[in-house]
Design a protein that fits this description.
The chain has about 350 residues and is of the alpha/beta class. The strands form two sheets. Strands 1-10-9-8-7-6-5-2 form an eight-stranded parallel β-sheet. Strands 3-4 form a two-stranded antiparallel sheet. Helix 6 runs parallel beside helix 9. The relative contact order is 0.13. This is Methylcobamide--CoM methyltransferase MtbA. GO terms for molecular function: methyltransferase activity. It comes from Methanoculleus caldifontis. It holds the Pfam family URO-D. Keywords: Methyltransferase, Transferase.
């Protein structure tokens, strides 16, 4: 390999199932940028200029291969009229859901991006990042899948009741959520995003029985993802992917974010040539790692999934927790450069 690739070139090669100069490293920082700027998490998420500045500082400090405009999943439910609850040391969560009764679904209006401040915040963040990184660094946006969004739209219990007991209303909600998802994803591409994560934890058999998923969420994904005008990677937010990997390969996704509980080598074999594998460092355990343990885990992941390309090293959830020490993140970055350079050394396999 002659010369060092840019993060965008490195990532593109991995997605083509080729071996780039080294394994790409995606560090998905959300609230972590508040630490860098010395702000509270609530204050950090009050201005897109703060989020963009945080992303750029973290990119420079830890040497990852992407930036992200994603702040927190509840920003989508804000567009539907929901509440957000902030905390001092963790991601903001959804508060009281906007759909209180299932029969409200009939009259539910799909929000427009242009009239949703929380979504406009995301678009402005993408624009600011694009102005700084251009085409050299991938900008990763995010959407919550229409199938998983109702967990925060109406609450988990109520959604389970809808899924099993009100099929007509379920499909009406899916139609509205699909429209919202496509609008929101395409707006991010128009603003400058390189790719979008389709967050669909309910696709995992950890959450939904396989036969039910195939009759519902998979149908939704196959209708939604092809309407998105750019690369989409499905993320299962820590849930296992291997039992549904063949299903996900048929949705139009180009990659899949996998769980730390997945067999990474088996996933790589099963998805070869169809889906790039993104993962699977344990983001919770990472809070307690030493730098030496971080190097061991990076080496393990690269040995399992690195050969032949088609692999991006990342955490298993899509978010670096607030409590992860900076020394561990620096050790991860150093280890991917030591053990992830192609051709991979035999000592790393």
């Amino acid at each position: 390999m002659a010369g060092e690739m840019t993060p965008a070139e490195r990532t593109a090669a991995a997605l083509r199932f080729e071996e780039p100069d080294r394994v790409p490293l995606f560090l998905f920082f959300t609230m972590y940028g508040a630490k860098e700027l010395g702000l509270s998490i609530r204050e950090y998420f009050s201005r897109p200029e703060y989020v963009a500045a945080g992303q750029l500082r973290l990119l420079k400090k830890f040497g990852g291969d992407c930036v992200t405009s994603f702040c927190y999943a509840a920003s989508e439910v804000e567009a539907w009229g929901g509440e957000v609850i902030f905390r001092d040391d963790g991601p903001p969560n959804a508060g009281r859901p906007p759909i209180r009764e299932a029969d409200e679904i009939e009259a539910l209006e799909v929000p427009t991006v242009e009239e949703s401040p929380s979504l406009l915040f995301g678009l402005r963040t993408i624009e600011l990042l694009k102005r700084e990184v251009g085409d050299d660094v991938p900008i990763i946006g995010s959407v919550v899948s229409p199938f998983s969004l109702p967990v925060i739209q109406m609450g988990f219990d109520a959604y389970i009741d809808l899924l099993y007991g009100e099929p007509d209303l379920f499909w009406k909600l899916m139609a509205k959520n699909e429209e919202f998802c496509v609008r929101w994803a395409n707006a991010q591409f128009e603003a400058g995003a390189t790719a979008v994560t389709y967050a669909d934890p309910l696709a995992s058999t950890d959450m939904t029985p396989l036969d039910l998923y195939r009759r519902t969420g998979l149908v939704v994904a196959k209708r939604t993802i092809p309407r998105i005008r750019g690369d989409v990677a499905t993320g299962l937010a820590s849930a296992r992917a291997l039992p549904v990997i063949d299903d996900l390969a048929g949705t139009g996704s180009v990659g899949v974010g996998v769980s730390t509980f997945d067999d990474l080598a088996a996933l790589k074999r099963q998805s070869a040539g169809r889906l790039a594998v993104i993962g699977n460092l344990n983001a919770i355990e990472m809070c307690r790692w030493t730098p030496a343990r971080a190097e061991t885990e990076v080496k393990r992941a690269i040995a399992a999934a690195g050969p032949g390309g088609g692999f991006i090293l990342s955490d298993n959830h899509g978010e670096i927790p607030w409590q992860v020490p900076g020394s561990v993140l620096l050790a991860i970055s150093a280890a991917v450069r030591k053990w992830g350079a192609y051709p991979l050394e035999e000592a790393s396999l």
